[in-house]
Amino acid sequence: MDHFLYRDGILHAEDVPLPEIARQVGTPFYVYSSATLERHFKLFQEALGWTDHLICFAIKSNSNLAVLKLLGDLGAGMDVVSGGEYRRARAAGVPGDRVVFSGVGKTREEIAYVLEQGIRQFNVESEPELLAISQIAAKLGVSAPIALRVNPDVDAKTHEKIATGKSENKFGIPIARARAVYAQAADLPGIEVIGVDVHIGSQLTDLEPFAQAFAKVRDLTLQLREDGHDIRRLDLGGGLGIPYERSNSAPPLPIEYGKVIEESLGDLGCEIEIEPGRLISGNAGMLVTSVIYLKKGEGRDFLIVDAAMNDLVRPSMYGAYHDIVPVIEAEPGTVAQPYDIVGPVCETGDTFAKARNMVPLAADDLVAFRSAGAYGAVMSSEYNSRPLIPEVLVRGGEFALIRARPSFEEMLARDTIPEWL
Ligand SMILES: *Cc1c(COP(=O)(O)O)cnc(C)c1O
């Protein structure tokens, strides 16, 4: 459930009519609902209420500082995959002991920086990385808390570009090698083994792959304890999917996911950590855009909108579906017609939807893409020299610009023409 509803025929974010935001900030823009972010975070808290836990928001899904502050103030930890994300977490007021560092290619600079600034745990993805962390921690005279990210070789049954738990993916240490690498880790200076980590993919709409992965984590944990390791924390990653297509999908709820965790791992007495991104931020955001032209084509009409693939890349990158709705509701009984909804970028891939049934629309009408709060603004670029679009946060009847649109002067000022030209 989110807080984007029609009132008197006008789509609102909580108590704010979207046309009001459009008037003030211009289109296109992202808008996030505080109440929805909070609600989703609390659903996970309830789902893990049976145990000691930390919910680490996956910053890569939405890294705006205001969003991070909101979640951090509710008690969230953060899952970061770069030094930049680590700095965002800290700038939003989240202490280092609530920040987990994941990712396959942590550099030595990043490792040293977070060790100096404070980190809850490294999720280690390879043996060379383990050695690097050991060397750097020993040199700094500190101890690095680590979990090994194991690759359980299960099929997450999701889009191939967001599946991470099969043996052919680049992520994690093959589970069959895990015992050997844990043994090595225990002997290394500057390393404190504390847990096991797994993350099998994103946008999972079935709990079965989670259950399979967790069963393997369970076996491994028991084995590692027999080997003498003090495994006291399990990081189970993120990945729970959301209903992008509201009419025909109902992915599992956080409470059901929490039950699977409890049934698989509840008796081990470990602290449970999870790293949800999409389920917290996805349906908490919309992309609002306006129609530039209605172009009559042969056999199809094109709605050319002012948002493009550089603002929301998921449709062209993953063939992803987003519900697209008019901001002003049509009269009941209005007959829908098919449109191809495209952006202005000079790429055929800049297509959001083909033959999408929409009520009749015209130039200047506002339309909103639902479920755009995760992997939306964070994946945007300035391709075609289109400025990054603003982000807005709503709380009740108030809203604030939380990232401004850069001016063309600011964009141009980033380039330098060498004096020898
Ligand atoms: C992407 C990612 C997540 C978040 O995935 P969601 O599908 O957004 O919940 C969590 N952990 C790791 C390691 C990731 O790479």
From TrEMBL:
Gene3D superfamilies reported for this sequence: Alanine racemase (3.20.20.10), Lyase, Ornithine Decarboxylase, Chain A, domain 1 (2.40.37.10)
Catalysed reaction, written as an equation: meso-2,6-diaminopimelate + H(+) = L-lysine + CO2
Modified-residue entries (N6-(pyridoxal phosphate)lysine), positions: 60
Boundaries of every Orn/DAP/Arg decarboxylase 2 C-terminal domain copy: 29-373
Metabolic or biological pathway, per its Swiss-Prot or TrEMBL entry: Amino-acid biosynthesis; L-lysine biosynthesis via DAP pathway; L-lysine from DL-2,6-diaminopimelate: step 1/1
Residues annotated for substrate binding in this entry: 278, 314, 318, 347, 375
Requisite cofactors: pyridoxal 5'-phosphate
CDD domains: PLPDE_III_DapDC
Subunit structure: Homodimer.
Record's protein name: Diaminopimelate decarboxylase
Organism: Thioclava dalianensis
Gene name of the record: lysA
